[in-house]
Design a protein that fits this description.
homodimer, about 350 residues, six-stranded parallel sheet, about 15% strand, DNA-binding
Chain lengths: ~350, ~350
Amino acid sequence: MSKKRVDLRDVAALAGVSLGSASRAINGVENVSSETRERVQRAIDILGYRPSHAARVLRSRLSKTIGCMLSEATNPLYARLFQAMEARLRAEGYVLLLATGLNDADRELENLRLFAERGMDGMILTPGNERDRRILDFLDSSEMPAVILDRDIETKKDVVMFNHAPAVKRITRELLDLGHRRIALLVSHVDVRPNRRRIEAFKTAMREHGIASPNDLVRLQTTSTASTFDEVVGLLKGQDPPTAFIVQGTNTLLSVLNATAAVGARIPDDVSIISIGDPDFARTHVPPIAALKVKTEDIVERTVDLLLTRIKGDRSARPQRALVQFDFERRASCGPVPQSHARGIQ
Amino acid sequence: MSKKRVDLRDVAALAGVSLGSASRAINGVENVSSETRERVQRAIDILGYRPSHAARVLRSRLSKTIGCMLSEATNPLYARLFQAMEARLRAEGYVLLLATGLNDADRELENLRLFAERGMDGMILTPGNERDRRILDFLDSSEMPAVILDRDIETKKDVVMFNHAPAVKRITRELLDLGHRRIALLVSHVDVRPNRRRIEAFKTAMREHGIASPNDLVRLQTTSTASTFDEVVGLLKGQDPPTAFIVQGTNTLLSVLNATAAVGARIPDDVSIISIGDPDFARTHVPPIAALKVKTEDIVERTVDLLLTRIKGDRSARPQRALVQFDFERRASCGPVPQSHARGIQ
DNA sequence: GTGAAAGCGCTAACAG
DNA sequence: CTGTTAGCGCTTTCAC
């Protein structure tokens, strides 16, 4: 009486073939005559058959699912990455399962265990905790293919790194070439490691240009976004104000733009601005804000390729590393140093 | 030789109990002696046993997974909602599977089918296509518990609606009470239905205050965000400019702030601004932008409750509707109408 | 190329 | 309270 689930047995019966043949037909295995294939397909259409995923996983030991643990889903870059990877992996027959780590080691570990329990075929991770031993141990002792994104972790897993240093050097030189000497660097505090590399690259570029480490102009936004506004206002109104800003983080950038407008400084006439990261509004802002952007498509491509290669290929091959480059979008927010300052310095 | 997976049989053997008892112990069923429970737990710890999710799903017909289809993962509100729901559902033993519809009916349908195929225990949806018959048919013919978020869909499923109209009326009156008469409403074009309701509520509030439908001040941002900037500049520099803006959409708000600064209009001295939606920067902007915010926690709570009730309880109970309220955050961006205009009107 | 049969690891029904 | 047994729906040998 109860309308039983349509299973492969029903399909096979209607098609007049055996259970095994029906299965082979569905999975596009070699040894199937085109006639059988057609008959099965017709039966499927008639019955509206949908295979049971659970049964498939149990039997084949392939879940066709990839676990994705990001530090937070609300980070715009991560959200875009997730969306793009989901689309790409779906096309390959995989489903992406999203979990957030929230920089909490316990939570992250629980997520990894969940991935294992649910038999993920692979995983993509941005662990917030780069040092927590339990997580590193878990990863290294796990057989599961995995790709780590933009984290300096000592691991046997494959890694996709963003090439921060050269990118930051490049924009620093860009500003130096425009005559700027007082350049401020503002970075948000969240992504610890990448920012450390950014700061270093910035200082190196300055030093290479004969400018002593400008400690007074490197700011880590340790507290709230509100304070960034005050800080920038302070800088602009203070003695020997910066003529250019390199800004990392969406909220940081907003605060800088806001502060600039508040003190009546014009962009790029009075201050030049380059953003690390390219949020939507950067392009449409008046004037448009020059930005360093990591190519989402590149990251997605490299990550998915690495992962699928590992899943399908040799699991004992040694760890791979891919390096993703940044693009610099030169836009109107970037201009030559104001004359007064140029004279003052030289 | 190959280190076989530890299964429940191994656990039972080590604990010296039967397979059935081990299963019952794990699942916390009634009829288990505390001794058995302990022995099993010890065996689990020793062996490092993790149950096979696939086998459980196949046998129990419960996947402990909820499908979540949002129109896009990159929408900040949705990202926050997802993150909060994920946490809440995880605590209840469920995993949230995220898929994006991208306002593409085919894609949405494919996602729904995937949810069915993978035996989701329930789903949470924001269909972009409120009219597509195939999707409505699929939903109505499906037995799967589901909650629809903020969509005016005729469906048998449970629904959580955001109470847009009263909220918009309220902020319109807020501005009217401050003496504003020329109030512009700018909405992004994406969420068709909610915005239709917002516009209507706005016009009603104006009419109730004896002000004719201000068609010249209601703008749907049909094209790019760049045009919003131009449009607002046009309005502010034109004849009889608005003294207040009600703005919906993060990018729209950014454009308005940008345009306001560009023409040198001060907030709130020259123009007042209220945002529909409360992005991070609204609070930290100088001055802070007054905003209508929907309480994420409320939505999450109502949605999850509705869903779990449906999953655990009576599936044939008639459809439920929950209504979520908005909070108005009065902030400094909102002030009395400028004297010149007040005189001009009265 | 195809059919028959053997489980994947677990829960649920039943008998004790 | 516990052990035994029968599958869940499918893929994958293994014969033929």
